Amino acid sequence: MANEDSIQAAPHTTAKLAAEFFGTFLLVLGGVGTAVFSASFPDSENPLGVGFLGVAIAFGLTVLIGVYAVGHISGGHFNPAVTLGVVLSGRMPWKDVPGYWIAQLVGGALASTVIYAIAAGGADGFLDNAVESGFASNGYDELSPGGFNLISVIVAEVVLTAVFLYVILGATSGRGPAGFAGIAIGCTLTLIHLISIPISNTSVNPARSLAAAIYGGPEALGQVWVFFVAPLLGALIAGLTYKVFFEKVIEENR
Description:
Blueprint: H1 13-37, E1 42-43, E2 46-47, H2 51-74, H3 80-88, H4 97-119, H5 126-132, H6 150-171, H7 181-200, H8 206-213, H9 218-223, H10 226-252
Antiparallel strand pairs: 1-2
């Protein structure tokens, strides 16, 4: 008789959605929370905080931890763009997409609500300053950390999301090194943030963008559409072309 631990049933849909909810909650709590509380501490004039580098590492760490914690249950997407890229590459059915997207959006929104609640108990003016500064929201023009325009932001978000999806699809391929996907994915997300925090404050994830914009004010909410359209477009490109660019080459070289 086989060992009981070696017989594992496929995860139930509820477990998958719970995993996506938790993973997205963790990503927003860790990444946006670091940006709100620790990027400039105590303030921008006398910074002792972690800065752009620390925020980039925080986002990378959250996705790395989430992948190893619950990735085996749901695939570890934590991002509507990743889910779209995965389904377009043929690795999951379309029927699972609505549930994944809802779980991701709700998980992110709950995490930013927790961050808001904690910030409300800060020193006088802390919450107001966090909201006035955009609550780590994404943006272009005046809402871009470096003042980059809409075109620059769209190009960056599309290209970097596509790169992120290529790495995810490659690292999780059956031909990839077993057990190392989380490291590759986490490091890639860190690199993406190092490139694009000054450009757009880095999205590549509609759930993360909406979560921050909820408390970032009307201007942030008015620009959040970009951070749905651009990442989903990048995921569309990667999801449709991954097999053409990579798996076809592998098959031809056999």
